[in-house]
Amino acid sequence: MSKRLLDLLLSGLGLAVLALPLLLVALAIKLDSRGPVFYRQVRVGRFGREFRIHKFRTMAHNPADHGPQLTVGLDTRITRVGAFLRRTKLDELAQLFDVLAGTMSLVGPRPEVPRYVALYPADLREKVLSVRPGITDFASIEYRDEGTLLAQSSDPERTYREVILPTKLALQARYVDETGVWTDMKLIGRTLRVL
What we know:
globular
């Protein structure tokens, strides 16, 4: 079975099975705070093409807010429902639509914002961007509590650039080296166990 076929089957099945819970999440977001249900952000996808990733909105909606792109610890912009969605990773389930659309895969390197992709070393940039970005991968599992880690730093931006990002890139390159349906199934299983 091809990776794309697996993505289509599992994302379609996931959206069908989770239809009611996803509707309840959307309703909770609307009742908790004003603004759209989904948050969309420009990320860098396969071959360096930019796309808009979907997440369930977890922060207060303010179109004029151009705050930090890193979310650190107890960010005051996070709503009550948003805190729950982030803790349980339910906010990421909206990316099943991105998988169905073909801009993402279930498993692959997490797509990054352009400003951080610009920091990738050329060889790793080419390698990591040679595959579709994913909802989960080795780095997602390793750094599932990244916000808390960054909150412990006196300079979260620097810690992300100099410590976390290089480690993530190494794990993402490992995924590219080991890519395949069997690897994807193992990572999906590990992700579900962690959650």
